[in-house]
Amino acid sequence: MADPKEYDITIIGGGPGGYVAALRAAQLGAKVALVEKDKLGGTCLNRGCIPTKAMVRSVEALHEAKHAADFGVDLKGFDLNFGRLMARKNEVVATQVAGIERLMKGNKIDVYNGAGKLESPRSVAVNGEKITTKKVVLATGSVPARVPVPGLDLPGVVTSDEILDITKVPASLVVIGGGVIGMEFGSIFNGLGSKVTIVEMLPQILPPVDEEIVRRYGQLLRAQGIEVNISATVKAVEKKGESLEVTYEMAKGQSRIEAEMVLVAVGRSPYTEGLGLADVGVTMNRRAIAVNERLETNLDGVYAIGDAIGGIMLAHVASYEGEIAVENALGASRTVDYRVVPNCIFTAPEMAGVGMTEKEVKEKGITYKASRFPFSALGRAHAMGDTTGIVKLLCEAESGKVLGVHIIGPHATDLIAEGAAVMQMGGTAKDIAHTIHAHPTLPEAMHEAALGQLDGALHVLKI
Predict the structure, then answer these.
(1) Candidates 3.40.50.360, 3.30.450.20, 3.30.390.30, 1.10.10.10; correct CATH number of 343-451?
(2) pLDDT 10s digits, 323-334
């Protein structure tokens, strides 16, 4: 091996957890090495959050073109150019990757391209080179989960990784899995013209989402032409002529459906292979790395974050954990706090939530009040031509403390930030209601929902 290079912190994995950890460590004055075997940005930037949202925006543009006449814009003609859509998606990703590369260089972070292996708590090997380091952060992310169903290796059966590289829109698509990934892709390809069918094993799609929000979304899915089968277990995928046939079982018996393509979207699994964790004695929780509330593993000076620890698998959670891990590695003593984690779903319409769902509030025996305000009563939503959905606020009955905020409707993923900020500060419905909200804007729906916790919303009639 080459002569050792010494660092204060070495981070294995350059996704939204790892690269943010590297930036924070450099900001605090540490000498930092970042090891990444693929492209900087990890799954989120290259095969997840960013490319899918670029596709979502293209679907929105297509929808706007189809309905342009409603806004007084007469188009002479338009068509979907899927090749250009995918090229734009790749351009967006490349721009973001280049931006992270500039950040690494500008912050004097040494980037090693290769698969890192933990040889000891003070040594990382990559490409035959030994890196000596005072602390290590493991941020290796996750991979699409697989299920033991015959036929998933057939051509035309894809994961969330492969579907981002297809060259034409499938005429029909079966999505195995009704979680966030499955529903987002289902929404995208429905918008592009595919006949989409969802097959979900659980009795509800989108299990983390407030049940009322899911019910409202389910009604919209039917109107959009997306078929949803819940409590349905996939038994096999078989080739049938030019199509794929998916067999699934429900309480009423077995059913079959044919499609041009099948997407397996049953979640993600921590990726910890090839790290040498067993050799150095890192304690595991099955495939995930075990950590304490300071994100320390059982090895002194070795931390782990993000999807690799198998907790809340969201990019913004990984970034948050990355900051905490390096601060602790450099002498702080911060603990993780997952009470306020916004969850965003980029379907049509968007959904977002933070805090407890109504079911969780009930299970905890908390006396609460729920208030709602529809976008259909909002001037800005009418001006936009997008009035579907509600803002739902859950508060403690006596104190008015905000327990949860749940939104379905236009820009829900942006609006949830106000709810998260209020909850982080321990705020109440009165705090929101007594804050002047600009008019005409979508956040007025949050203001009106908060008024609903007090004497009542102003812009809807009481029934």
Answers:
(1) 3.30.390.30
(2) 999 999 999 999
